[in-house]
């Protein structure tokens, strides 16, 4: 694995077997900077159905973890490129330049907040998908190979994904160790969930360790009876994975227009409270669970 110093960008290759799973401290041979070395926990926020809160959850989970002092890389694998918009930043490069090796990892990422970096998505990812499609061999490992040099620089890598099912979605499933599924509390979304789980099991044949880690109910509206029934169903089917729901909160839909996370835009809102609880749950659970 390649280890890159976060201060001066000096890289060196270290045998994977020599990298401890627990945190160790590395001395940069070039500038002497000391930095912790451990592989980031990688959490992919995924569901083929559109508009279920994937981007809202990715951005606010990443921002909430960063506020807790974790070093976080948010990766946008969607051509819509909304993560940058939600954070109110305009990076000139992102995931495309990393995958095509036009830029070094340290130049492809963009510092969006304290402790929070973004590997931006956007239209150019369409070319990346074509590139993956054209590979005769190993196309599904493209993202894994590209993110490897960044893994030791962060505590968390949070991956936002696009609706639908495309070569990048498959890459995300071959990369992430933990999967978080936002389920909007409406009947249609349960149908979407069962279809997604079928597709996931086709990946599981090749990568046994991939599985659902967190199921996050979104758009919970306590005034309506139906969402409560769906939530109960989910609790029965996925008792270990179900998280506390994210309530419907208009502040969450307003914040992106100001380029702010929910913690910046409305820190006392139900949306901020619910995402804080999700951050806590993620921090308290082990990546091996
Ligand atoms: N809990 C919530 N309460 C109110 N509005 C929300 C909530 N979560 C998300 N939204 C709003 O719903 C819309 C869809 O959310 P979001 O973009 O996060 O979904 P998505 O799954 O990423 O969509 P896509 O599949 O298109 O990528 C956005 O306008 C967002 O601001
Ligand atoms: Mg999205």
From TrEMBL:
A family per Pfam: Zn_ribbon_4
Recorded superkingdom: Bacteria
Domain named Zinc finger/thioredoxin putative: residues: 1-36
Stretches assigned to the AAA domain: 41-207
Gene3D superfamilies reported for this sequence: P-loop containing nucleotide triphosphate hydrolases
PANTHER family: P-LOOP CONTAINING NUCLEOSIDE TRIPHOSPHATE HYDROLASE, PARA FAMILY PROTEIN CT_582
NCBIfam families, sorted: MJ0042_CXXC
The protein, known as: Putative Cobyrinic acid ac-diamide synthase
Organism of origin: Megalodesulfovibrio gigas (strain ATCC 19364 / DSM 1382 / NCIMB 9332 / VKM B-1759) (Desulfovibrio gigas)
């Amino acid at each position: 694995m390649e280890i890159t110093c976060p201060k001066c960008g000096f890289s060196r290759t270290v045998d994977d077997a020599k990298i401890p799973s627990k945190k160790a401290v590395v001395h940069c041979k070039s500038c002497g900077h000391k930095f912790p070395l451990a592989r980031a926990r990688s959490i992919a926020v995924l569901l083929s159905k559109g508009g279920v809160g994937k981007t809202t959850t990715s951005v606010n989970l990443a921002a909430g973890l960063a506020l807790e002092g974790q070093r976080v890389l948010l990766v946008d694998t969607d051509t819509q490129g909304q993560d940058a918009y939600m954070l109110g930043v305009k990076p000139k490069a992102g995931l495309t330049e990393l995958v095509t090796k036009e830029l070094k990892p340290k130049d492809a990422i963009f510092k969006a907040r304290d402790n929070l970096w973004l590997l931006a998505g956007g239209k150019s990812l369409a070319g990346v998908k074509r590139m993956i499609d054209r590979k005769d061999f190993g196309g599904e490992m493209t993202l894994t190979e590209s993110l490897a040099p960044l893994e030791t620089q962060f505590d968390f890598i949070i991956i936002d994904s696009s609706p639908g099912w495309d070569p990048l979605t498959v890459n995300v499933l071959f990369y992430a160790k933990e999967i978080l599924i936002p389920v909007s509390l409406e009947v249609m979304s349960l149908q979407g969930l069962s279809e997604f789980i079928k597709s996931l099991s086709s990946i599981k044949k090749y990568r046994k360790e991939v599985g659902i880690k967190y199921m996050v109910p979104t758009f919970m509206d306590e005034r309506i009876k139906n969402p409560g029934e769906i939530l109960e169903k989910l609790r029965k089917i996925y008792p270990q994975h179900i998280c506390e729901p994210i309530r419907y909160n208009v502040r969450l839909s307003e914040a992106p227009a100001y380029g702010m996370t929910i913690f910046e835009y409305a820190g006392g809102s139900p949306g901020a409270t619910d995402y804080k609880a999700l951050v806590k749950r993620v921090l308290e659970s082990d990546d091996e669970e």
